[in-house]
Amino acid sequence: MINWTTPNNDIAALESRGGEDSPTHDCTKNHALVVFEPVDARDARVVELWIHGRSGHTQRAYRRYAAQFFFHVRKPLQLVSLEDLQTFASSLDTLKLKPASRHRTLSAIKSLFSFAARLQHITYNTAAPLRLPTVRDTLADRILELDEVKQLIAATDTPRNRVILQLLYMAGVRVSELVDLRWGDTQARRGGGQITVMGKGGKTRTIHLEAQIWATIAATRGTAAADAPLFVSRRGGPLDPSQVLRVVRAAAKRAGFDRAVSPHWLRHCHASHALDAGAPIHLVQQTLGHSNVATTTRYLHARPNESSSRFLPSV
């Protein structure tokens, strides 16, 4: 039997512990824990099969969503009706979550049901007709100007934290990719260097780094072995994504930003600024590890440089 935990048996706490910018946050931390298990032990096994092979932060988030769902319905997947799913969706509305949080939770549950149906664990995909909430595209809100990125990096409090922000921006890596980096994943090259990261879906990609950022990174190695993390926590292990979030938030506060900046914002900035500077879209796609160029194209639409209004007469 695989156990999940819910804080104080409080369904609201499951989502409130993980905010918009902290999908990796452990919803059980600092709460009195009550062990919760799905009614059917086979459902727990299906969940583990469903999340297998996904990144660590995705697994934690999906377990949280599954625990929240099973806590609400309290019945096996096979017996869950569309009405149960709609009631669960309505319960998310009462928690006053942001639309993106509701969309993310329900998308995960729909994915779980689709997977269970493919395994023939359930007779049919009950969640297929479930409508997802409409979400406004807020990508443009999460792209800083170049001067703001410079201010953010300059506001870091230690050389290590400065390198963290520089690498998030210059390489466009995800925070999970950054904390997983080992010195063996780095390599010097003429005129710079490169890092090799493991991205979504277990896909590996190599990112070239210009001489300046490479020299800054290489200077922090010292005598670290090839299997040592690039960025070490106080306990000597790799940083946790939540620690990187705190580093970015602290720098944003010192820089005087009134927005909840997250590490992923620097990835957005990389894509937008590179495209604005004339980088080929397929190169940006390759650097960021987007499986589909349509994902990269979103950045062109998020901050257009012109519009058809230019062709209209003055009024």
Q: Your description of this structure?
A:
- By secondary structure, this protein is mostly helical.
- It has 13 helices and 5 strands.
- A 3-stranded antiparallel sheet has the order 3-4-5.
- The radius of gyration is 22 Å and the shape is globular.
Which tags fit this structure?
single chain; 315 residues; hpI Integrase, Chain A; 13 helices; 47% helix
Annotate the secondary structure layout.
Blueprint: E1 4-7, H1 11-16, E2 33-36, H2 41-51, H3 56-73, H4 82-94, H5 99-118, H6 146-154, H7 159-171, H8 175-179, E3 186-189, E4 192-198, E5 204-210, H9 211-218, H10 241-254, H11 263-276, H12 281-288, H13 293-302
Antiparallel strand pairs: 1-2, 3-4, 4-5
Helix content: 40-55%
Class per helix and strand makeup: mainly alpha
Domain count, please report it.
Answer: 2
The CATH first-level class of the largest domain comes to Mainly Alpha
Mean pLDDT: 85
In CATH, the topology of the largest domain is named: hpI Integrase, Chain A
CATH architecture assignment of the largest domain: Orthogonal Bundle
Order of helices and strands: EHEHHHHHHHEEEHHHHH
